[in-house]
Design a protein that fits this description.
This protein is of the alpha+beta class. The chain has three helices and two strands. It has a two-stranded antiparallel sheet. β1 and β2 form a beta hairpin. α1 crosses α2.
Amino acid sequence: MRLHAPNEHGLPIPEEGEDLERVEDALLATLTKSGGTVLAYVLTNDGMREFVFYTSAPKAIPTAIEKSRSRIATHEVHFYVAADEDWTEYRSRLP
């Protein structure tokens, strides 16, 4: 999702930080509720924040995102679901 007022480095300013924490809480509450989905990492750069989840129930994600959106008033949440059975994307972020 796009940040509202990123700083000169593309990161959120402190005032937006609390809103982003509430967004993360809302996503975690709905997406991980069944136990088949985990938050792998959060990436923030270039004026964007990306939450990467891995799930064993990809067909349930659109409904869960819609439930999350009803709890998120500060940011517009966009999402997509893509297969990554070997966790290649996650592994590419490891040091």
